[in-house]
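Data card: per-record layout.
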Amino acid sequence: MTQSSVLPKKVGECFSMTGYAQARSEQNGWAVRVSVKSVNHRFLDLKLRLPDGFDLYEQRLRQALRDRIHRGHVEVHVNVDPAAGAPVQVNRELAQTYMRVAEEFRQVSRAAADVDVVAILRLPGVIAGLSAAVPEAEDDQERLGQALDVCLLEALHKLDDMRRAEGRHLVEDLRARLARIGQEAEKVRELAATLRPVFARRLDARLRELLGGAGIDPARLAQEAALLAERGDISEELDRLRSHLQQFGKLLDGAGEMGKKLDFLLQEMHREANTLLSKTPGAESEALTITGLALEIKAEIEKLREQVQNIE
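The structure for this 312-residue chain is written out next.
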């Protein structure tokens, strides 16, 4: 199987790691069946099962799979049988030997039953052509290898169709969640702008309580309020979160492997959400609303992480 058989992803196309496909092919006197099953995995984990004696084809099939699939746990089962109408050969000498031995044993044991010819035909080595075996000639081996290539390629095409369809649904869900996170983040930004007066009122009340009603220098109060607001400023976290959302969207608009990159961005987004929560203390209605929004953002990020685990 050549590199030309590998179809590149289109821009904005996402592949799920979950899928199943099966293909059958009859070529050069062989009936080949290939089934491919894939599920999510951090890396590419290939499990290839071939009939006994077919190990010489393992490397070429593995390479074909690596050219097409880059991430996921992939199980491939290959079955090979002679094609329908393939000639059946009887080893007459071996069959006669079996019959002679069976007849001698019947006479010795004085068994009444005659020798069962059908049972003789089922004995090992009597009939050739009913089970798969790698041909001895190199040309025949290559023809069988080509038949395996064709069948595997067909199965991978079908698998890609399923993974592509599942990927479209994943992208739709991811974009919807990204939009919700962006909307919630903008609500947080608007509320955060109203918190400086809140900090000033809280500081004023606290100082009056401590000073027993004595006068407070307005300038000093404004300074302390500014310091308090600065320690609780979340504008940088919101800016970084917005940047991560934009990068996430660009990755979805691109092509190629994106799962690991998306997972990294989600780790960063999760960190920003945690910081939003830690920097927004207090029981004021604005602060409580921001805390609620930050919790919603964090929940959406967790759902994104679950979905991204299934993207190649």
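Known properties of this structure: The longest strand covers residues 72-82. The chain has three domains: 3-86+136-163, 89-127, 166-308.

See the next section for split statistics.
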